[in-house]
UniProtKB/TrEMBL annotation:
The lineage of its organism: Bacteria, Bacillati, Bacillota, Clostridia, Lachnospirales. Keywords: Hydrolase. This is Alpha/beta hydrolase. One of its GO terms (molecular function) is hydrolase activity. It comes from the Bacteria.
């Protein structure tokens, strides 16, 4: 499969596939990188799409860039840079976002003329997730406000400015035809959050019974692959 490595406003990216008027923007989640788009790209390019994947802050080729963390405002900024680049070059634009990448997409692309959106284990309510983490580790809002940032035993750090941003920027608009695949045991996004989103925004939902947030067991990976082939 053809790959073209490019740089978009300092963001390392890959364009997968032969020239086409149709493209998917691939937005990976945490602990991933632009190269992880290869499997999806094989399916999408067979259907006549190209795919553009890129590294989020602190991921892939951007791991050692100082003072540019994978915070929501940086993620949204980068997605908008990618979106502007794509809008100038392709007619038919869709997006696929995984976990945190799906959340960034909801904020960055709510006014973009997207054809469709695919979401894998999406974070749909970041404020609620942060509140849940505060509850899990007995961190009060006042404590977080005073300390500004607090590491947690699960390896994530809670930030006061991040928390304020997500409260001030809720998901209130999403008019894109959307399909979601989600594990029933996902502890980052509760089922009621997914159901509320799919109801409000008329999205299609596929539930992997017994699967957790990270889809990695062979039986679930096979179901994910089938879902991608059917929905791409």
């Amino acid at each position: 499969m053809r790959q073209e490595r490019i740089d978009i406003d300092g963001i390392p990216a890959i364009i997968w596939g032969e020239k086409s008027s149709k493209i998917y923007i691939f937005v990976h989640g945490k602990m991933s990188c632009k190269e992880d788009a290869e499997g999806f790209s094989e399916v999408a390019t067979a259907k006549g799409y190209q795919v553009l994947s890129f590294d989020l802050p602190e991921h892939g080729e951007r791991k050692n860039i100082p003072d540019y963390q994978c915070h929501v405002w940086n993620g949204v900024h980068d997605l908008k840079c990618i979106g502007s680049y794509v809008q100038q070059r392709w007619d038919d634009i869709s997006v696929i976002g995984s976990s945190l990448g799906a959340y960034f997409s909801l904020l960055a692309y709510n006014d973009y003329p997207l054809e469709k959106c695919l979401m894998i284990s999406p974070i749909l309510d970041m404020e609620r997730l942060i509140r849940n983490m505060m509850k899990w580790f007995q961190i009060s809002e006042e404590t977080l406000k005073n300390q500004k940032e607090i590491p947690t035993p699960m390896g994530e750090t809670l930030y006061w400015d991040y928390y304020c941003y997500v409260k001030e920027n809720p998901i209130i608009k999403w008019d894109v035809p959307t399909s979601i695949i989600y594990g029933s045991e996902d502890n980052l996004t509760e089922r009621e959050v997914v159901d509320a989103f799919t109801s409000k925004y008329h999205s299609n939902l596929t539930v992997l019974e017994g699967c957790e947030h990270y889809i990695h067991k062979p039986e679930y990976v096979a179901q994910l692959q089938k879902w991608i082939e059917e929905n791409c």
